[in-house]
């Protein structure tokens, strides 16, 4: 039971950015809900399978040093916090892809966002038994569905409100730094 509590905490901490992005896609009138759900689910499953595969590789080769993967979200978070904003260039012509292209955009975005989660999930998955890993995978799939439903609810409730820039600029990178630091510190203590 303790494993599922830790898994839930890691899922929440690592998926705040995904919730924000999925909500943004749902708010975008150019994207149909079905396009967002197909792209999000595909990207989520690719990321989860990558984490499970990574855990098997690390278990066989580098289990003792897996916690160092926590440096990935720390670096991404610090980059997000300290990067310079690009100069606005005015209105640029945007090409809106067709339905398949929009699904691909959501999928690639979800894979990219789940890619940073690998650094958190792999060290966590390494220490699990097969039964615990299966339970966590099932819990994560259920949590992913809940995350999408929450994004839809937020969309329905806030479709007329502007998207606050501080979320992408400060909150998401700070969460990445926190989660990566947790992985490094907890792994360092365990070694």
UniProtKB/TrEMBL annotation:
Name recorded for this polypeptide: Cadmium transporter
Organism: Natrarchaeobius chitinivorans
One Pfam family in the UniProt entry: Cad
